[in-house]
């Protein structure tokens, strides 16, 4: 198993490995192109950068990620400006998802052991956002989290655990506020 496969699988890996560094550099160049190009060219560049991008999805600039190829975005999904994705493991975003500005996705983490951190050791777990989710602005989503379909994450929340489908969560750390009913028109 090479270092890139270890990284994406949640194992300890060498972040300075040549294959990882090459992918990181390719992503950096595409992001520079994205930031300096007119919006009419964004879809073409995003399709080169990301693992997959569904039809009618929009990503507003600035957008930042480390690898790109580990990000998969469904159809008719909207990511507002200032999204940051530390995508050392896969990030899956479903269809018809709305993500507010300045939201952050963190797939890597480090040990509580300072000796491990001195060696820059980290491991990663994927993040999944299922269909029809609404994530407010300035939300942080931590590694290994799945946000269930049709759920809403209140602005400013820190999501450290899975969110059940059809649930409103909020706070730091995010906690269930209440179930969402099909009759809910506004929060």
UniProtKB/TrEMBL annotation:
The lineage of its organism: Bacteria, Pseudomonadati, Pseudomonadota, Gammaproteobacteria, Vibrionales. It comes from Photobacterium profundum (strain SS9). SMART domains: Mac (SM01266). The gene is MAA1. The keyword Iron-sulfur does not apply. Residues 4-55 form the Maltose/galactoside acetyltransferase domain. This is Nodulation protein L. It comes from the Bacteria. PANTHER family: ACETYLTRANSFERASE C18B11.09C-RELATED, SIALIC ACID SYNTHASE-RELATED. InterPro entries: Hexapep, Hexapep_transf_CS, Hexapeptide_acetyltransf, Mac_dom, Trimer_LpxA-like_sf. Acetyltransferase implicated in the O-acetylation of Nod factors.
